């Protein structure tokens, strides 16, 4: 009897201290305690069985997670060159035209009647962004005049950098015709470069979504300006400027729409152009230029380089419904249909 009572008392004390208060003699003979005792025994046995399994399970999970991470990193590494491959790369425009002809017969017919697209620019990103800010709200001639004064003040295009811009005073900017607001935009851009938030190297390597987010943080640079910069300065292949008036008018004409498509509709209408929507936008500018349709400014033609002159774009610094004219990246005024000069 003593050999049988000892393990019962031990299990009872481990599982619940309250049970010890009951007389040990009554435990085996009391029917009300019988259903409780097996439950406590099962609880103890399950606990002891799980402990040795935990290290094995967690190690297997670590191995599985490590394998998945390695696979994910390999996939992302392989995809990066395709995302940032510019239209200026050898054979890329030919690939784009082949895709667009097969994906969109209407656009394919238009391609056969218009010149070959040209994407050339030797300006560094910082200089191109400075030029974008300087041309805001200005006609091409006035913008070019101020830009040339700015370059002369800095000592030439080759020396324009964040430190040089930050060394210029507000009075110096004012003397060359740059407003106080534009000067603050240039200072903000230069400060973000100096702080390491942006750099020419990182701008070139960033994927489209990250680049849009980072450039939109700069005062005076809105979504339209970012799109123009990505297309005409970085030659990104798959950028659709949905708010560009010229591209929207071109889409309306190409597909025979009754109304001008809203920016929210542009993504769906031009989905078939992926991954070369930048080329599709280029042909929309040429389409409306060839038909003499005015947008928000006169059209300037220089060879095969199409660029906007004057574009209305919402600014973060003002109320959401207020619009402000912005100028382009490569030295020509803004619009959605015009020519981007070198």
From TrEMBL:
* SUPFAM superfamilies for this protein: DNA-glycosylase (SSF48150)
Ranges for domain HhH-GPD come to: 134-289
By its UniProt entry, which CDD domains does this protein fall under? ENDO3c
Q: Which family does it belong to?
A: Belongs to the alkylbase DNA glycosidase AlkA family.
Q: Mind telling me which Pfam families this protein's record contains? A: HhH-GPD
Q: Which domain of life is it from?
A: Eukaryota
Q: Which GO terms describe its biological process?
A: base-excision repair, AP site formation; DNA alkylation repair
Give the protein name, as stated in the record. HhH-GPD domain-containing protein
Q: What organism is this sequence from?
A: Capsicum baccatum
């Amino acid at each position: 009897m003593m050999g049988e009572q000892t393990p019962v008392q031990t299990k009872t004390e481990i599982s619940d201290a309250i049970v010890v208060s009951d007389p040990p003699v009554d435990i085996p003979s009391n029917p009300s305690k019988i259903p409780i005792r097996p439950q406590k025994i099962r609880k103890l046995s399950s606990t002891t069985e799980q402990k040795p399994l935990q290290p094995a399970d967690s190690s297997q999970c670590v191995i599985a997670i490590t394998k998945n991470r390695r696979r994910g990193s390999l996939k992302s590494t392989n995809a990066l060159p395709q995302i940032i491959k510019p239209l200026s790369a050898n054979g890329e425009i030919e690939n784009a035209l082949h895709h667009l002809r097969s994906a969109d017969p209407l656009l394919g017919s238009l391609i056969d009647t218009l010149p070959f697209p040209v994407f050339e620019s030797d300006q560094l990103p910082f200089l191109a962004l400075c030029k974008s800010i300087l041309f805001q709200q200005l006609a091409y001639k006035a913008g070019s005049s101020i830009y040339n004064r700015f370059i002369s003040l800095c000592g030439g295009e080759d020396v324009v950098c964040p430190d040089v811009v930050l060394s210029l005073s507000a009075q110096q900017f004012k003397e060359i015709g740059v407003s106080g607001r534009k000067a603050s935009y240039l200072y903000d851009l230069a400060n973000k470069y100096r702080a390491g938030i942006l750099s020419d190297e990182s701008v070139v390597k960033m994927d489209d979504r990250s680049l849009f987010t980072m450039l939109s943080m700069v005062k005076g640079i809105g979504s339209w300006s970012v799109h123009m910069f990505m297309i005409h300065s970085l030659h990104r292949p798959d950028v659709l400027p949905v708010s560009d008036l010229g591209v929207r008018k071109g889409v309306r004409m190409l597909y025979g729409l009754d109304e001008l498509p809203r920016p929210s509709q542009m993504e769906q209408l031009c989905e078939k152009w992926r991954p070369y929507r930048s080329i599709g936008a280029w042909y929309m500018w040429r389409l409306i230029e060839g038909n003499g349709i005015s947008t928000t400014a006169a059209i300037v033609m220089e060879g095969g380089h199409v660029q906007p002159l004057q574009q209305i774009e919402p600014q973060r610094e003002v109320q959401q419904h207020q619009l402000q004219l912005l100028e382009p990246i490569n030295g020509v005024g803004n619009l959605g249909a015009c020519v981007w000069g070198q």
